[in-house]
Amino acid sequence: MPLKKRAPQLIIHSVFILFGLSCVIPLISVLSISFSSEVDIIQNGYRLIPHLFDFKAYAYVLYRPIQLLNAFKISILVSVIGTLLSVLFMAGISYALSRQDYRFKNGLSFFVFFTMLFNGGLVPSYILISNYLHLKNTLWVLILPYLAVPWFILLLRSFMQKIPHDIIESCMIDGANEFRIFYQIILPLAKPGLATIALFTMLQYWNDWWLSLLYIEEEHLVPLQYMLYRMMNNISFLTSSTNMMPPGMKNMTLPSESARMAMAILAAGPMLAVFPFFQKYFVRGLTVGAIKG
Question: Residue 79 in contact with residue 205, Cβ under 8 Å?
Fold first, then answer.
């Protein structure tokens, strides 16, 4: 094939190769920094390949493995339970909003949209959760605040509106009730949209540390992100307060940047493993919902 005819294809391939490298190189850089010594980072900067492999950052992060495993367990438990409940709850609201014959559609739509613009604020929320609902120091305080996200509800409603109403009418004629239509018809047809919302919701639960900072005081209920957040604060405090350190530790270089990257690897690893399972649903079922003749 002549070069002139192959030029557009070569340009497209080059653009996608560069785009792929721009996504992969930062991950390799983070992994490399996590295995680098703090002195090497200060003297030579960041490298794609460590000059000398150093495991001090991981030794610091994994200093208490039982506590770290418990934090992983809490984060996984909250993420899985929270995602399942949240997706099911938001799917029910989105299905009601997508039905043109729902009598309270306008009022519910206004309520969902209003909560996107205004909220009660931090102090009323804290008083409500701590004093009235008594959810402090429970796993539910990490799950319930993200149970319904207005933006995800509206996004899922738009997806469900594309499902032909003729299917729902046919099911009603056959005697199916609303719950059966929702669980056996709507949810399978909305699988690509549900997978997208589930991925975003799981990332929100997994990356959250703010709720733990506010409401969790029991050590056995601390999730992973909050535990890593406290570790990073401890390193920053010790680094900036050398006068308060013991005499034998004043000349030590704490793993600040390398520990930060090691924490990023530990925190992002499970999500990188989960994402391919959701990616399958992004590709499959794009034409699901069409009426067969």
Answer: yes
Query: Distance between CA atoms of 81 and 205, rounded to whole angstroms?
Result: 10
Q: What is the three-class DSSP state of 187? A: helix
Strand partners, 53: 36
Closest CA to 152 of 76, 101, 83, 207: 83
- For 225-244, the pLDDT digits (tens) are 898 888 888 777 766 665 55
Q: For residue 78, give the nearest of 275, 230, 225, 183 by alpha carbon.
A: 225
Which candidate, 42, 6, 1, 21, places its Cα nearest to that of 254?
A: 42
List the domain boundaries for the chain. 29-283
Instruction: Specify the pTM.
Output: 0.81
CA nearest to 225, candidates 269, 272, 263? 263
What's the distance, CA 36 to chain centroid?
Answer: 28
User: Are 170 and 248 within 8 A, CB to CB?
Assistant: no
CB 138 within 8 A of CB 79: no
Compute the distance between CA of residue 104 and CA of residue 108 in angstroms, rounded to an integer.
6
| Residues 291, 293: Cα–Cα separation, whole Å | 6
The closest alpha carbon to 271, from 184, 203, 196, belongs to 203
The domain made up of 29-283 is a member of CATH 1.10.3720.10: yes
176: left (phi over 0), alpha (psi -120 to 50) or beta: beta
DSSP state for residue 221 in the 8-state scheme: G
Residue 93: phi and psi, rounded to 5, are -65, -45
Predicted confidence (pLDDT) per residue in 105-144, tens digit: 888 888 888 888 887 788 888 898 988 888 999 999 999 9
Q: Which residue has the tokens 């070069």?
A: 3
DSSP string covering 88-134: HHHHHHHHHHH-TT-TTHHHHHHHHHHHHH----HHHHHHIIIIIS-
